[in-house]
Amino acid sequence: MTTTDARAPGGLESALWRAVAVYRWLALAYAAAMIVRNQGEYARPAGGWAVLAVMVVWTAAATALFADGRRRGPALLAADMAVALGCLLATAYVETSAGIAAGRPTLPVSWVAAAVLAWAVQGGRRWGVAGAGILAAGNALLHVLAGSEGPHGTAMFNGIVLLFLAGLVVGHVVRLAREAEARLARAVELEAATRERERLARGIHDSVLQVLAMVRRRGAELGGEAAGLGRLAGEQEAALRALIGAAAPAPPAGTADLGALLAAHGSTTVSVAAPATPVPLPAAVAREIDAAVAAALDNVARHCGPSAPAWVLLEDDPDAVVVSVRDDGPGIEPGRLDAAQEAGRLGVAQSIVGRVRDLGGTVEIASAPGAGTEIEISVPRHARARARKVGP
Length: 392
Known about the structure:
Blueprint: H1 12-37, H2 45-67, H3 74-89, H4 91-94, H5 97-101, H6 113-123, H7 125-145, H8 154-206, H9 208-222, H10 225-247, E1 255-257, H11 258-263, E2 270-273, E3 280-282, H12 283-304, E4 310-316, E5 320-327, H13 336-342, H14 347-358, E6 362-367, E7 373-380
Parallel strand pairs: 2-4
Antiparallel strand pairs: 1-3, 4-5, 5-7, 6-7
């Protein structure tokens, strides 16, 4: 028998046992009313009062004993069934043979079903059906003790069927409820673990990654052995960013984590800074933004040199996502972009500005000769990707 220890107040197990206790008291009240009503027809009326006294005492004792999770076990279940069976068989002593043969209610009536419910709650369907079988056998034995011709009463047959149904259904429902509670507990644990992972990722992002990025930049500026140290720091920074991205929870279906896409551009020369938590966007929108950033980084490598450093910053605002691509190269001379567009070179106009414009976003380019270039891409969170026409 598999049991679940839920002694904590308010747990599923405690609620089930409270329901069984409530049933005991309600069934006791009904049995008492029936004993009072049928007193004049009993062969031994005093025996009816004695059985009622036993039922009252055991109801109070069972309520207290089953409420303590440490006491629930085979011994208490056996005692509960023994008391129920004894009160049932006592009907043969108190009731007349004619009354039993006519199908008059037993002394405990439906009070004995509390034992079946207890077995079902503790052990599931099999134990519930087993408890119902014991009481069914007790009903048959009752007719034998009373000298009746046999258990042919319709009321007795209906009672046996109800006992089996109660044991089967309650045991099944209890099993399903326990499985649901276990799944809920696992979901709560997973959520707590996810929150802790996100907290650690934020801490790493705000401390370790920034230190590695600073070491990489300073090493490149100092040169010599410091450049080698900076290169190693850059490699570790890229690996750590990839690890954080892999540990992050998967975005919902149909979406993509823009932070994870941009993190793939990280290298010894490209520093990517993104929120520690996912930045989910529609998959098509995220891919277009990633393509625009890739085009910007390609321009940095082409015009500033393959070893030129670049910085990518992703900001997740409530209404929009903002991506900045910055370099410290020679900058762009005034009018150069317009001249390139007139000459048919549409790299920035199409690959960056055109993509973002199709998403309903904006692109701002800040640059001056000798001061580097910064491209700021801003796309609203509700953006939808449009089909792009690709020219020759």
